[in-house]
Amino acid sequence: MKFFVAMKSGARVDLSNLYQLYEDALQEVGIIEDDSQIYSHDGSRVVRMCGLEGDDACQKRGTYASGPRKGKRKDDCGAVKKCPHARVEITLRFEPERGKE
What we know:
This protein is an alpha+beta fold. It has one helix at about 15-30, and strands at about 1-5, 40, 45-50, 85-90, 95. It has one domain (about 1-60, about 85-100).
């Protein structure tokens, strides 16, 4: 299962709390019985929006006004060091029979 979390501009990301949020939610609604059934968080990451294309791209990125890339998005939004606009992708893998012993 994959979840996406949008972050406020400049917010610090605490992945361990975000993992627990979705583990608890899956348990609460009955998709899993216990969070010990989750065996992997592989693939979870913080994604800077400047690195994405299409509808997911940082909306602060401008477009080129002239030249060979005219009309295409610039490579970043111009933020110093790293884009302050981010989302978190959380990937949880679980086995329905795991943890029922």
